């Protein structure tokens, strides 16, 4: 392709990436290093014959408005927001390290910090849901691919239902099912033999429920990708493996999986990005008391009457850095495979 032709071909995509990816990233990075101006306080002394003189503190609205108009971005704080107690909490961690003699005590106190509590759930959710989603999607794809052609269409339809349902609606449906009056919740109460048993009252069980929903809602995507990849599998390789006496498991391990590895990499990239920004299940399950992710951390900062935009921007930047770190091993391996194939 000629350079001029390629330029016109790439221009719309390049402009879209500039407007919707590059500029928002620059914006949040800029917002994260500025903090809002505090209100300008004014002390007014009032004297009365009976009470005497008293000093009252009021907000100077005109001076505050003028200061914010002169510096709309706020006051420059550099990396101060990143290191405060609401985020990396460098000073607090140093004090914890000095005051604790055991790892258990240190990590127990570390879990009380909001950012690290959200990071713990986000990483746990990501590293458990992603491999389980890939595995379940592959198993479903292999099972459907082995069915009779008259049954494949029906099974594909049912397998795609979780992906068709809106994430928030899907999480609400499962939330109602695990309620003590729901199908799953009622069954658990019966098996536990305790009428007061509630899955929603346990932090550990709530984490499990969120991860089960994550796998359930994401597995159809992996299934579609792997099923499409199975349609391109050369049959002569399967036939050669069968002639050599390979079992079904050996055919999958040594023929099917190597053929699908590029697709496994693709699904892993997408799932890592999606799972790291988990939000809808926590809202749908009303699990804010048990689980906080980086996305809910950002949402809480941007909600309410006192919106902390600088704090939300700092968390967003660290979320982008976290996604980049998670994706880097997969991208490096993909690049090496690409160079080795040339």
Automatic annotation (TrEMBL):
GO CC term (a single one): plasma membrane
Cell membrane keyword on record: yes
Entry-linked InterPro entries: ABC_transporter_permease, MetI-like, MetI-like_sf
Family to which this protein belongs: Belongs to the binding-protein-dependent transport system permease family.
GO BP: transmembrane transport
PROSITE patterns linked to this entry: ABC_TM1
Membrane topology: Multi-pass membrane protein
Protein name, entry field: Carbohydrate ABC transporter membrane protein 1 (CUT1 family)
Residue spans crossing the bilayer: 7-34, 118-144, 156-178, 205-230, 251-272, 309-332
Keywords for this protein: Cell membrane, Membrane, Transmembrane, Transmembrane helix, Transport
Xref: Gene3D superfamilies: MetI-like (1.10.3720.10)
The organism's place on the tree of life at top rank: Bacteria
Alphabetized SUPFAM superfamilies for the sequence: MetI-like
Lineage of the organism: Bacteria, Pseudomonadati, Pseudomonadota, Alphaproteobacteria, Rhodobacterales
Ranges for domain ABC transmembrane type-1: 119-330
Localization of this protein: Cell membrane
A Pfam family hit: BPD_transp_1
């Amino acid at each position: 392709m000629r350079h001029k032709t390629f330029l016109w071909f790439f221009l719309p995509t390049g402009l879209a990436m500039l407007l919707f990816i590059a500029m928002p990233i620059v914006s949040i990075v800029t917002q994260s290093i500025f903090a809002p101006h505090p209100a300008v306080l004014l002390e007014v002394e009032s004297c009365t014959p009976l009470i005497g003189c008293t000093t009252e503190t009021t907000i100077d609205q005109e001076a505050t408005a003028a200061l914010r108009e002169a510096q709309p971005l706020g006051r420059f704080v550099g990396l101060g927001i990143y290191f405060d107690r609401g985020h990396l909490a460098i000073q607090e961690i140093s004090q914890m390290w000095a005051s604790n003699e055991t790892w258990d005590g240190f990590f127990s106190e570390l879990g009380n910090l909001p950012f690290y509590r959200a990071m713990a759930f986000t990483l746990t959710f990501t590293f458990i849901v992603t491999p389980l989603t890939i595995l379940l999607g592959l198993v479903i794809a292999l099972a459907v691919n082995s069915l009779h052609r008259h049954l494949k269409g029906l099974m594909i339809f049912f397998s795609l239902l979780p992906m068709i349902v809106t994430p928030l609606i899907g999480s609400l449906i499962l939330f109602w099912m695990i309620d003590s009056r729901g199908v799953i919740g009622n069954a658990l109460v019966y098996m536990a033999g305790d009428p007061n048993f509630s899955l929603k009252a346990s932090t550990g069980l709530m984490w499990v429920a969120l991860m089960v929903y994550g796998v359930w809602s994401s597995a159809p995507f992996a299934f579609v990708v792997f099923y499409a990849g199975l349609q391109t599998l050369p049959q002569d390789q399967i036939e050669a493996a069968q002639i050599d006496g390979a079992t079904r498991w050996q055919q999958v391990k040594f023929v099917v999986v190597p053929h699908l590895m590029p697709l496994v990499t693709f699904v892993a990239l997408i799932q890592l990005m999606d799972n790291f920004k988990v939000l809808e299940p926590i809202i749908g399950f009303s699990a804010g008391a048990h689980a906080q992710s980086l996305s809910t951390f950002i949402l809480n900062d941007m909600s309410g009457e006192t919106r902390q935009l600088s704090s939300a921007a700092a968390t967003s930047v660290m979320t982008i850095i976290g996604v980049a770190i998670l994706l880097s091993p997969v991208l490096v391996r993909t690049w090496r495979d690409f160079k080795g194939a040339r």
